[in-house]
Amino acid sequence: MPSKLETAQSPQALKRVVIEPLTRVEGHGKVTLLQDENQVIRQARLHITEFRGFEKFIQGRPYWELPVLVQRLCGICPVSHHLAAAKATDMIVGARELTATADKIRRLMHFGQTLQSHALHFFHLCSPDLLFGFDDDVRHRNIVGVIEDHPQIAKQGVLLRKYGQEIIRITSGKRIHGTGAIPGGINKSLRKSEIEYLQKDITQIIGWAQDSIELIKKIFFEHYAYHLAFASIESNMMSVVGADGAFELYDGGLRATDCWGKSIFDHVDYNDYEQYIREGIKNWSYMKFPFITSIGQEQGWYRVGPLARVNNCDFFSTPLAETERREFMAMGNGLPVQSTLAYHWARLIELLHCTEAIAELLNDRDLCGKDLLNRGELQLSGTGVIEAPRGTLFHHYEIDEQGIVEKASLIVSTTNNNQAMNESIRKVSNQYLDGNMLSEALLNQVEVAIRAYDPCLSCATHAIGKMPMQINLLNANNELVDRLEKRVDGQFDRTI
Amino acid sequence: MNSQVAPILIFTYGNPSRGDDALGPAMYDLLVKHQQETSNLDRVELLTDFQLQIEHAVDLQKRDSVLFIDAGVSCAEPFECRKLRVERDESFTTNAMSPSTVLAVYKQINHCEPPPAFLLTIRAYEFSLGQEMSEHARANLRKAYDFITAPHIGAESADFANQCFSTKPRYGGTVV
After folding, report:
1. Which tens digits make up the pLDDT trace of B3-31?
2. Min CA distance, B153 vs chain A (Å)?
3. Domains of chain A: which residue ranges?
4. Interface predicted TM-score (ipTM)
5. End-to-end distance of chain A based on CA atoms, in angstroms?
6. Interface A:B, Cβ pairs < 8 A
7. Domain A55-415 falls in which CATH fold?
8. In order of start, what are the domains of chain B with their CATH numbers?
9. What is the pLDDT of residues A229-268, one digit of tens each?
10. Chain A interface mutation, best of B55, B68, B105, B132, highest count of A Cβ atoms under 10 Å
11. Residues A332, A336, A340, A344, CA torsion sign
12. Is the pTM of this model over 0.95?
């Protein structure tokens, strides 16, 4: 399945175009496009320039600190890491099952996290592209531009984010660095007043989620053929599903399907994930390339996240989201929907499901229960897998007899999508950049393709003044022949 | 979602496990301790987060003034303090909104001017995962802390700018 463009026969004879970093993609990223003498794109690679050192950061720490510690790996989705680590340490303390109260409060926290993450992505990161079009003046194509032209939508985005953050605050105890989930359960249940506080706005929140789906459908159908084809690739899909095949974010078995929708594996116990998934290495990227073992690296790469989850599940347990899923799936005419821009649509179906699921949970008396913890016999290893907003997230830890972490292995959502993002870049590059001079509009096509995956390349830091966008054009002799710089005010300078 | 809010908000941001990016949250910890031990921050609410985002515009509601505190690699040593303008952040790169853009979001969703807001940027040097805060950054943090905890914060006046400017020479920071 990987394109023949990934490895050109004579890369030394190619001209290189470097785009660095990507705007509105979290953290640092760099795209290298290699052109041949005829200005045809022969290679396209998304580089991750920062070595993150996750494992080293975690090794040597006591296992009971993990759910709090790992939140600092990423400022974008700390709750996802919090819950994945909590699930792994559940295994370590021998808690094979959680109490009903612990399970439901963790799920509520996770729905809140997914809601706020999806709201940010749609209303802040991607909606400017979709609302204004990819060729719109880049200075207009940001959240402030959205707010000016669509004040109600933007305000809803802010308040959806805020609502999700409030759920996180209440379930985890703090706005950030929460300690809600601990090995074997949770450290507090909810008070009635907290539930009533969240219930106050939930009807409005569901309404806004419905509005957002209507908006994305309107946008999608206005240029249906274009949206369907843009950066579209045929891929395998992997996600967690419930035992009954239901859409699932917090816990379940692993399901992988091929581009025809046929099963590759199903209901796999995620504790055995290493038998089904391997990570390939390429010498030009720090980020690994996971693949399905039984198919092999060349054909076994896959997509995760909203598109994979909505394609893979048999149904949503909540009625409004299920109605939307059926309409979405009709687009594929019986096959999985492969449009990369359909990630946005799928993301909003999930957002709607989260709001419905939150409303249901807020009526559940178990949220106020007193039975918070389960424990069993201590184990020397544990695996936790959840569906983070951007896709499947794996945490695996091994400890010594004193409870100190000796080995930590993480596969984050963006890594799972690594090869797929490269494939989409190649598709777009070959279609739009072939033989052309670099321009803002063309570069944005590449960025739009990447943004659809909502990649988190986050370093969770923000060194002001350190992150201008720079575009270098190098010839086959590695000589700089052109450079475009994007200043912090959004203007481009040609500096050569 | 705010009901009763303190008139002054101090909002720090950064990742505690990213070297000098911990300056913001470290200042938060110092100020929480200071608030517990003294009364001259009793009109202040302290908040912290990994980075600024759109929803933080809601935290600015009903405030008389706001002070953001961040780490920065391009400011003067030991720190800089400046009044913020409401303006579009045209860069809109990565996960972090600038405080000026948060003010712009505030204005757009509330249809009114945001409260007077200031940014105190503490000079930082390294941002690697798992790295301790550098000695230079710690020294800068201490000077910025002295600046923040001077009596002006608890004063009746909501005009941070006048207070900040008047105390500048004593603490060695730069007010721009």
Report:
1. 578 999 999 998 888 889 899 999 999 99
2. 24
3. 11-50+418-494, 55-415
4. 0.76
5. 39
6. 151
7. Cytochrome-c3 Hydrogenase; chain B (1.10.645)
8. 8-175 (3.40.50.1450)
9. 998 999 999 999 999 999 999 999 999 999 999 999 999 9
10. B55
11. positive
12. no
